[in-house]
Amino acid sequence: MKKILYTFFILCFTASIGQNNEHSPIVIVKDTWQKEYFNFPLSFAPEIPLKGYEEAVFMPGWSNTESDEFWSYAFSWELNQDKLLVAKEIDTYLRLYFDGLMESVNKDKTITPPSTRVLLSPIGPHSKIKGFIGRVDIYDAFSTQRVLKLSFKVVQEYCLVKDKVIVVFKFSPKSRDHKIWERLEAISLVENRCF
Q1: pTM above 0.90?
Q2: Domain-embedded: residue 154
Q3: Could you tell me where the beta strands, DSSP code E, fall in 12-146?
Q4: Closest of 67, 66, 41 to residue 54, by C-alpha
Q5: Which residues have a Cβ under 8 Å from the Cβ of 92 and sit 6 or more positions away?
Q6: Superkingdom, according to UniProt (predicted)?
Q7: What are the pLDDT digits (tens) for 72-83?
């Protein structure tokens, strides 16, 4: 397990060399969660044409295959733009993100990881929340070297005063009715984040 976390953090460190890591937190999580920051363009997915930065937050058991927290985490983007992302962009960016990430950490270069698959739909039409729910099938190059099916939820908000968009992605291989989602749903924006 330590080797997996070490590999991930080496990737994170490498991705952030030469970048300004003086970012303010986007979301609130417990102190036991690990945090990392990345500037766009992301080193492992430079094709994502966004400007801003990412904050990734990991539950303590993220890399433990025996834990309910395995692969349960979130990442948030603060984007320098004035329009919310549409479904096609979310789909494309998740594919580029996970394909690039898994390719960059895949140690067995004789294996070509399968491409990421994304299934998403808008959160109910009468909901005040602007976002999507779905599933993303990724190749887990970190731990299992198998395809993982991650349930996900994406919510986003336009910050008028800052003229930025905040996008929060939450993931877990556990079904949306599992108790782990109570903890993921408890992730919230830092107070006054848009002011």
Answers
A1: no
A2: yes
A3: 27-28, 34-39, 52-58, 73-79, 117-122, 130-139
A4: 41
A5: none
A6: Bacteria
A7: 999 999 999 999
Answer yes or no: is 194 within a domain: no
Q: Is residue 51 a part of any domain in this protein?
A: yes
Asked whether residue 95 is assigned to any structural domain, the reply reads yes
Which of 2-6, 9-13, 137-141, 191-195 tops mean pLDDT? 137-141
Any idea what DSSP says for residue 43? Answer: T
> How many domains are contained in the chain?
1
Separation in Å, CA 151 to CA 155, 159, 189: 14, 27, 21
Residue 104, domain extent: 2-189
